[in-house]
């Protein structure tokens, strides 16, 4: 059987995924998935949207309410550990959007916001995102 070659094009470059190590292939495919959700090229159940932020239901929910909140413009913000002073505004927008999502979902009286940063924290998509979790009693410690 032949090898499947997947090519990703952007405005500035073309990437052949078969030439990259497997961990990079997964990461590139993952963050491009969020870009496609933002562009409405991949279906999602949108819970909240404004000009800077998009919130949609997680496809593998870990609680009765599990919504992902992402910035529409990545601007190098692949993980919280890479945040720079220029990202202060969008970080605030993301947290406020988490509050709006909690209100819309009826969990404003008890919810958790999680940001996984890097491989040891199990970050699987390198496009900064918040998990808004609720609808059940949360436990401590969380992980």
Please characterize this protein's 3D structure.
The protein has 143 residues and is of the alpha+beta class. It has one domain (7-134): HIT-like (HIT family, subunit A, 2-Layer Sandwich). Helix content is 24%, strand content 22%. The strands form two sheets. A five-stranded antiparallel β-sheet has the order 3-4-5-7-6, with helices on one face. A hairpin with a 7-residue loop joins strand 4 and strand 5 (65-71). Mean pLDDT is 84; it is low at 1-20 and 24-28.
What sort of overall outline do the alpha carbons produce when their principal axes are compared? globular
CATH H-level superfamily title: HIT-like
What is the tally of helical segments?
Answer: 2
| SSE topology string | EEHEEEHEE
Name the helicity range: 10-25%
| Strand line-up of the largest beta sheet | 3-4-5-7-6
Low-confidence parts = 1-20, 24-28
């Amino acid at each position: 059987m032949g090898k499947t070659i997947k090519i990703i094009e952007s405005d500035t470059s073309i990437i052949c995924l078969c030439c990259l190590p497997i961990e990079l292939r997964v990461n590139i495919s993952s963050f491009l998935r969020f870009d496609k959700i933002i562009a409405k090229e991949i279906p999602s159940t949108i819970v909240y949207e404004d000009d800077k932020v998009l919130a949609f239901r997680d496809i593998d929910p870990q609680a009765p309410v599990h919504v992902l909140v992402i910035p529409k413009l990545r601007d190098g913000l692949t993980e919280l550990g890479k945040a720079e002073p220029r990202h202060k505004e969008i970080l605030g927008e993301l947290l406020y959007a988490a509050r709006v999502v909690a209100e819309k979902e009826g969990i404003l009286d008890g919810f958790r916001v999680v940001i996984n940063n890097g491989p040891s924290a199990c970050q699987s998509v390198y496009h900064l995102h918040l998990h808004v979790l609720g609808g059940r009693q949360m436990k401590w410690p969380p992980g």
